[in-house]
Design brief:
The structure holds two protein chains of two kinds.
Chain A lengths: L4 E3 L2 E4 L5 E6 L6 E7 L5 E8 L2 E5 L7 E4 L6 E5 L8 E8 L7 E3 L3 E5 L1
Chain B lengths: L3 E4 L2 E5 L4 E7 L6 E7 L6 E7 L4 E4 L2 E6 L4 E6 L8 E7 L9 E2 L3 E6 L1
Parallel strand pairs in B: 2-11
Antiparallel strand pairs in B: 1-3, 3-8, 4-5, 4-9, 6-7, 7-8, 9-10, 9-11
The chains are: A mainly beta, B mainly beta.
């Protein structure tokens, strides 16, 4: 069964450093997402991406965040200058859209900012 | 803005009993309502979903009901088993925009053997 894959599974970084989280969505999916889950809290929407551009973003997704789909398979989330409060699990998801609405989640990348 | 409220935050039941988790949503245009199960340190896994043109859906021990008028939907788990212990999230989306899911705050279900 095809699945969304994410790397790295865990990254530790110093405050102020740049981080790139990578995702390979399911190949025939058209919509791509990043979500964030701070430990013990709910899953929060960050950004959706369709047709090579951001279709929607949340208030959390400020200027320090960016997304790219550089080569038609990878979907990346970049955090330019990490802060302590960026420590969380970041989930990538993809979906076919259309009538289904179902999203498929990756295993997540745990980011720890020291 | 869009919001999904979920209750209770924790739920402890005896094995074999039923568990019910309730959610309400704020955006009346929402038309897709999935439920996800998340085990510790794992990804959210879809367990059942319902669309706005249906009032109830069942899959073995799991059922979901939707009341569009009241903007409520609920997850029902019957004959609970210890392996049902996890965090359950409800979510809502509109399948006419970016299809993003807005999640509830989660319910930690503990099934006591």
């Amino acid at each position: 069964e095809p699945e969304v894959t994410q790397t790295p599974s865990h990254q530790v970084t110093q405050m102020g450093q740049e981080v790139i989280l990578r995702c390979v969505p399911i190949s025939n999916h058209l919509y791509f997402y990043w979500y964030r889950q701070i430990l013990g809290q709910k899953v929060e929407f960050l950004v959706s991406f369709y047709n090579n551009e951001i279709s929607e973003k949340s208030e959390i997704f400020d200027d320090q965040f960016s997304v790219e789909r550089p080569d038609g398979s990878n979907f990346t989330l970049k955090i330019r200058s990490t802060k302590l409060e960026d420590s969380a699990m970041y989930f990538c998801a993809s979906g076919l859209a259309g009538r289904t609405g179902e999203l498929f989640f990756g295993e997540g990348s745990r980011l720890t900012v020291l | 803005g869009e919001n999904v409220e979920q209750h209770p935050s924790t739920l402890s039941v005896q094995e074999g009993d039923s568990a019910v988790i309730k959610c309400t949503y704020s955006d009346s245009a929402s038309n897709y309502f999935p439920w996800y199960k998340q085990e510790l340190g794992k990804r959210p896994q879809l367990i059942i979903d319902i669309r706005s043109n249906v009032g109830e859906k069942k899959d073995q021990r799991i059922a979901v009901t939707l009341n569009k008028t009241a903007k409520h939907f609920s997850l029902h788990i019957t004959e609970t088993q210890p392996e049902d212990s996890a965090v359950y999230f409800c979510a809502a989306s509109k399948t006419d925009s970016s299809y993003k899911l807005i999640f509830g705050s989660g319910t930690r279900l503990l099934v006591r053997p």
